[in-house]
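JOB MANIFEST
job_type = single_chain_structure
chain_count = 1
residues = 597
[input]
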Amino acid sequence: MTSWIVYADRWVALAAVLSALAAAVIAWQRHDGTWGRDARLGLWLLAAIAALAILLPVFGYWAGGRTHANAIGGLLPWSDAAGYYNCARALIDGGVLDSFCQRRPHYSGYLTGLFALSGERLQLTLLLQAGIIALAAFLFVRVIARRWGLAAGFMALAPVVAFSGEYSITTLTENLGLPLGLLAAAILLTGINPRRTDALAFGAFLLSVAINARAGAFFVLPLLVLWPLVLRELSLAGRIKLAAVLFVSVAAGFVVGPVLTTLLGGSADSTHANFSYTIYGIVAGGKGWLHIYQVHPELVAKSLPESVRAANVYAATWELFQQQPGLTAQGLLKGFLKYLERILKYIPLLPVRIVVVLAWLIGIVTIVRRRTPETALLGLLVLGVALSAPILAFDAGLRIYAATIAVDASIVAFGTAAFLGWLARRQTDSGSVPAGDWPAAGAVTWTAAIVVLLAAIALPVALRQSAEPVALSIPERSCAPGSVASVIRPGRTSGVLPVVSAAESGTWPARASADAFITRVDRYTFGALGFEQARAGTTYIFAYDLGEGRFGQTFVAVAQDLAVPLDGTPQILCSREWPDAPLDGVRSVTSIKALAQ
């Protein structure tokens, strides 16, 4: 498999930028003053490139046997991703939400819904997840293209596909925050001109849910509420009324998490409990969220409920702030410098990143110089990201920007339009879409947003309440002495990644070539050296136990030179502890055979 497919996530942003250049040149040659805003063929190309640029990296991981820090072979959940996977699996069978997932329950619910829609097949679930991101990305850049031209639409796509390529093969919260954030931005933009209160309210609600689903730039939300107050064309009463509507919408977005946690069997006061760890790290001078474990491990002991741990940490934070307030300023400054260093850094190729950052900077300058409702909204949103960054910059890397990628993408698009307008020696036209176009665009986008919300909220609640799990009995003496018997459905409820010879490797179902697998392990993967010891004949199994007495338990097992079926039929998996295993905590498979029904 050629490396350009395997590493597609590294160049898809380049494809978007080159497409923007081509669109600009064609519009220039045709003296098209609209810059392709009404070009139907251009919009079809935009849709095709959005789909390819987001889906191709997913297949690239599978085809090349690449291991992401949160996905073994680009497939099996690992580290944090395994936690969300376990929560989703438990919910399908009527279990309660684990404390790890109660902090942000949205994605666990969403993943539960995707599992149900895919027939509980992990690879299909990941593909469906990426497909939803692709649809949301297109609906967002379609709005951009309709407002500011086709080239601007392609430029907006560049940061979106670069970010998606990094996380779309994982079961992490970014994969809900990103599409909801894109859809929120699309709806907000369609509500500006002509002003539609319903679109603005729903867009604000979506953005609030998105930022709660993948905790990130929270200061975006209060600044969004303040936006109507700077609109000169509205009366004072009109400004206050619109601000009140946005406030209620944003507040409603915060309610979703605690309500969902409660409905899924968790505790509502655990929502965002780990945010207290981040705040303590800032007040300590920018030490990161793990610092509390180093200085006060007793406050965050696992034996304590999540809400108690959070209360302990907040109390310690206030005490430290009173004693050494200067550390807080130091931490915020360090965080802001990290933000400046990381602007659009998720775009891998440096030349592409430079081009996109230049467009972003032009957009910022243009926003400062122009006074329109559109520029006021974009300016406040990007200010919200910048104000949030000092608090969040130390934790989770660039993942924290998932829900607000659309803000940066909009700035990039606006800067592109401003630059092209300058080249054409005319004032930048912020673009108003012809009257008949908005209803169709709005209806599709609203429908997509509602479907995603239903998949994340209503569907998991319904599945959990209607679940009737049946543990499968295991015949006596199914395993040799020293081994523990489990029942799994490999290829269905239990994910499987065989490591095989190059000739036997494949993409669907994923089968990693041994030579490729051991050389393409991300260096940040926990246990990377252990994965590099794999060989042809090694099979990794993310086992979900369906057997009596062990129902719902999960573990990672490794089989050597054993044929593991992938058709989802029940199998008795015999495994034992593996003290000298190359990976901590994994079990060694001693045998696997079909369960007699």
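[summary]
The chain has two domains: 3-270+328-463, 484-594.
The longest helix spans residues 236-263.
exit_status = 0
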